[in-house]
From TrEMBL:
GO terms for molecular function: actin monomer binding. Pfam families: Thymosin. This is Thymosin beta. Keywords: Cytoplasm, Cytoskeleton. Belongs to the thymosin beta family.
């Protein structure tokens, strides 16, 4: 496709470049650039990747070349497994239960009065619990500073000579 003169944009249609950028571009010196050697690195696939790709292409080739005429014709035999006597009896029992539930007549029920029982404890149980709590509070809130100081005197009476003689003879 040839480009004609009428297709090229006019000067006023071209994008405007900022003056400071334009001056920098004009003053650019390519000799300031460093010389760099470009190294292209080509990563080769591993032996495992090559083997996997070969296996995949072989599989695709085998699928494309597969001949359905090489298959043998077989007849499919469908077997119907009938339930045994225990399963039939269980199913009949369940069906009769469901029928009984569906056909249940709620109007045949007798009216009953529900008695609400008071689960609260009686007065004796409340009093016993109060006494127990009072006792526990007395132990927990015990103030040892209210105790009087006492001296403990250990008495270890030594045996007399007669008692020692009796023990020796015994």
């Amino acid at each position: 496709m040839a480009c004609s003169v009428s297709d090229s944009p006019s000067l006023k249609d071209l994008p405007k470049v900022a003056t400071d950028l334009k001056s920098q571009l004009e003053a650019f010196n390519p000799s300031c650039l460093k010389d760099v050697d470009t190294n292209e690195k080509i990563v080769l696939p591993s032996a495992e990747d090559v083997a996997q790709e070969k296996q995949h292409t072989a599989l695709l080739h085998d699928l494309e070349q597969f001949q359905t005429s090489a298959l043998r014709k077989t007849e499919t035999v469908e077997k119907i497994v009938l339930p045994n006597a225990i399963d039939v009896a269980t199913e009949k029992n369940q069906k009769s239960l469901f029928d009984g539930i569906e056909k249940f007549d709620a109007t045949r029920l007798k009216h009953t009065e529900t008695q609400e029982k008071n689960p609260l404890p009686d007065k004796d149980a409340i009093e016993a619990e109060k006494e127990k709590n009072k006792f526990l509070n007395g132990i927990e809130n015990f103030d040892p500073t209210k105790l009087k100081h006492t001296e403990t005197c250990e008495k270890n009476p030594l045996p007399t000579k007669d008692i020692i003689e009796q023990e020796k003879t015994a």
